[in-house]
Amino acid sequence: MSKRFKISNKAVKSVMAEQSTSSNVNITDAVLNQSPVIKDAENVTINYTQPPSTSSSDEDEWNSMRKLINLCISYLEKEGKLRLQGVSAKEEIPVVHPIIHEITYYGKDTVPVDERYDPKGPNELFKNKIKREVCFQDLLDQKGKFISIVASAGSGKTVLSLRLAKAFSLPQRLCIHLKLMDANYEQPLTLRQLLLENMFPGHSEEFYTACFSWMQKNTDKIVLILDGLDQAQYSLKETSPKINYNACVPVKDLVFNLCRKHFFPNSLLIITSRPHAVLYLHELARPQVTYALGDLSVFNSHELFLVFADEDLWRKINTTSSQMLSMCRNPLMLQMIISSNIDPSEDIGDASTPTRLFATVMKNLTQSGHIRNTEGFNELLKRLRVLAFDATMEGKVVLTAKQLRNAQVNPATIHDIVVQLHTHGLSVNSCLFEGNTKFYFCHQTFQEHLTASYVVYEMPLEEFQEFVETSLFQEHWTVVRRFVCGLLFDLGSKAVSGDLQMKKEILKKHLIWQLAIISEKYMKMERRRDDEALRDKLFDLYACVGEGKDSSIATKAAEHFPTIIQLPQPMNSNLVPGFCFVMKHVTKQLDDLGLFFCFLDANSFHEIASVIKEIKPGQIGEMEIIGNCLQPSNIDDVIGLLRVVSDGLWMGYCFIGDDGRLRVANQDEINKIQTTLNKIQTGLKVYVDPGIILRSQK
């Protein structure tokens, strides 16, 4: 337990008498210097105060509050403007929000300890903890509670919190939005200084006194939003003493007392954070409700995309690499995809795979304000690769100052698009060598790409061979493995060193061997339930093949393609391109291709159907597409399958209705299918519904 201070009234009076002409900070320092240390301070109350200020009338208070509310609204207008690096908005930003779920949070094994690295990615983090999906209005309807909003980096926590603040701001209600990254003060301060004087400097003592007095009397009319608890320099794992409104103490004690509702008990308090910082709040200061942010909806990501780019670029990306559009559902990834495609590096070409995208982003960073390194970007990049690989090897996404120091990475040279730093109000040295300071890659995928870059470009050849043989094909390295394949197999005709060429051959040999052995095991499972793990491994390997775009490897993968195969349920859209790339090279007869309850959206189904309809007629015996989320436009994709499937096509509930529920084909869609069947010579039966079976009438 950390050290706490017990301060007697006698000590306070003695010090205040001696320091009556000194500043508040000096009074506090003197009190703390005279105070003994105690071990258990849970019930200790610190009562020392500032010198009393002149009281204000109700009219003075309300006049000051109207001015403060306008200051808050002006701050929100300025901070709430969404800006993408290197891309200008063509129009006003639409009101789009990530999908929001209320979750159960403090059960056993709720989230990975200290944000442990998880190759499944942050979108998988809360899937077993969801209570219900909520809307933006549900957050606005909360009153007098302490709630937290948790999400991974780049998910839109700050944008959402700013929009909440604007929505909460009413003529007779005060909403203060404070970025905790901007409140890493080293010196003790009062709650009034934290929320008013430091947020809105330059006003009179009378103004601050009147506002703070009103806040204490009207706690039910206050909304406090503390954005980015994970960016604070302190931890709230341990309890802090109960303090009064005028106590001058470290920031963490102020925040702890806000969480416990010792301050403004009837106010609404909202904290946003990465998951681990909220998980480790002391049990006395935990939120009553926790919400987790997911991705943007498909519609919202498209709407936001068009603010910064045009429909032509959207269609181009959809045609060349539709998985990039699924990545656009994360606001940070949307930014990177747009900026990389609008102004791609000449050395990279089209950013049509995640590997190419991140290579483009890293190249673009050399010409941005995010990297300030006098030694050159390439030297810094090598150090970041080492840092990322070591962290992934240890299974962490949270980095310490010691790790940065060991990697010789100076935080002053890196902006938060690469590593998120907590440097506000601190010198570089104190930030770098402060033991409790933590750092993050701004998105887990950055860590994975840099890790893969270390494996490809920095790891010695002998070590690389051992790593491929013993580690790379384990689940822990799933995403890194895709990037490694993308970096090595997508070299094309570029001139490469001998070591890189040898690494490519080593990896190619082991990938083909893995494809053969996993495919063989999968086919022997005879579609029993325990084939799911093997199927998932197989599709991860297909993703590796697709990332590298090497046709010779795809041809080998196609030779081992199972004749009976069921796609993952549900099918992650990131797996679709790899599956399609391999499917293009399949020439063997397939007995059954199951897209059964894969919940494919319109884009993913179109991408798969576009490949399948190009293979030879009758090459697939049976196919099931029930349990997907097709749009009316996908009827043309379904019709394209009719020449390829020879025996049975099970449709069932494969379309998504206007009410969001799955539906069977309507009469117009049935008529189109029947017309096509009548034009082709086929014995195919199309099972639209248990009572509706279509076949050629000629």
UniProtKB/TrEMBL annotation:
Alphabetical keyword list: Cytoplasm, Repeat
Chain ranges of the NACHT domain: 145-279
InterPro entries: NACHT_NTPase, NLRP_innate_immun_reg, P-loop_NTPase
Any Pfam family: NACHT
Keyword Lipoprotein on entry: no
PROSITE patterns in UniProt: NACHT (PS50837)
Superkingdom classification of source: Eukaryota
Protein name per the record: NACHT domain-containing protein
Gene source species: Clavelina lepadiformis (Light-bulb sea squirt)
